[in-house]
Design a protein that fits this description.
CATH architecture of the largest domain: 3-Layer(aba) Sandwich
Strand content: 15-25%
Strand order of the largest sheet: 5-2-1-9-10-13-14
CATH topology of the largest domain: Rossmann fold
Order of helices and strands: EHEEEHHHEEEHEHEHHEEEHHEHEH
Radius of gyration: 18 Å
Helix content: 25-40%
Number of domains: 2
Number of helices: 12
Number of strands: 14
Distance between the termini: 14 Å
Length: 304
């Protein structure tokens, strides 16, 4: 059994390759839901939707998010046009909202979406069925992460990162058992602070990972001090972590056994090893699916 944790474009690209390489083993994809927020009178789960789009093959590859060839007519004249949710995406989120109003959990709705999209080889789980949101505090103001990222273009200074309701949240019923029973646990090349940390903050998750006998592999979202996507470096700096693959190693110390880094970062091997992680050197610049498939093969072939 293989279990992954992540969210965002980096996770989607890697999971596409991993999904192609998984044969008989069960693949569990645990997705960050602290990015979720209310807009257009629906609750949107950006990271969950992105994983569904990548694994179903309908992703807009040029953007790295959204549905290929989607339209945006509903945004015309909208005060929320800064958030580029497509018409088809909106329609699906309305259906999701209606199912939740009828009493289904987010996990159950995702399972319906997974089956409808023909994603047969993976189980997709939200990190929690409870409402959790990421907020950035800046200049005395509380800003939802989506607004910070897109509307404010990451300009405000980060004074605090807060996951609302996280201490009261619970993982889905099966999730901790899946972690415990996994052969390999993979931390996708996602933003450690914004995509991975919220999952780890759900009560019981971090301890379950530490107790698991699985091989634990993290993948750096940084190559040669440049992030794949988004404000990774800014949040690493805020957390006083080095803005490189070495900082990623600092974050995963005590959690991961291995860290996959790019060939351009081979000079960091000794520093990563000193932190107790075994470096795996590989081309991780996921310019196409063959690269992510190669990354997945190397990880799946690791033996205890």
């Amino acid at each position: 059994m293989i279990t992954t944790l992540g969210g965002g474009v980096g996770a989607g690209k890697f999971l596409e390759g991993l999904y192609s390489e998984v044969n008989k083993e069960t693949l569990n994809v645990i997705v960050n839901t602290a990015d979720d927020f209310d807009i257009f009178n629906v609750r949107v789960s950006p990271d969950v939707d992105s994983v569904l789009h990548w694994l179903s093959g309908r992703i807009n590859r040029k953007q790295g998010w959204g549905i290929r060839n989607d339209s945006f007519f509903h945004l015309i004249g909208s005060e929320n046009s800064w958030f580029k949710l497509g018409d088809q995406d909106l329609e699906e989120n309305i259906k999701k909202m209606n199912l939740i109003k009828r009493g289904l959990s987010l996990e159950e709705v995702i399972e319906r979406q997974r089956k409808k999209l023909g994603i047969k080889k993976a189980k997709i789980l939200p990190m929690t069925n409870d409402k959790v949101e990421t907020y950035i505090f800046s200049g005395g103001k509380k800003i939802h992460f989506q607004e910070y990222l897109i509307k404010h273009k990451m300009r405000p200074k980060i004074e605090r990162v807060f996951f609302s309701n996280i201490k009261k949240s619970k993982p889905p019923d099966s999730m901790l058992n899946l972690i415990a029973e996994s052969r390999i646990i993979i931390f996708c090349p996602s933003n450690p602070i914004i995509s991975i940390d919220p999952i780890l903050a759900v009560p019981g998750v971090k301890s379950a990972i530490r107790k698991s006998k699985a091989i634990k592999v993290a993948i750096s979202p940084i190559v040669s001090s440049k992030a794949f996507k988004g404000p990774v470096l800014k949040f690493m700096k805020f957390k006083n972590l080095k803005q490189s693959a070495l900082g990623v190693a600092e974050f995963y110390t005590g959690l991961a056994d291995y860290l996959m880094i790019d060939t351009l970062d081979s000079k960091l091997v000794s520093g990563i090893s000193a932190l107790g992680l075994k470096p795996i050197i590989k081309n991780i610049k996921m310019s196409n699916k063959s690269v992510s498939k190669g990354m997945a093969r190397d990880i799946l072939n690791i033996s205890a």
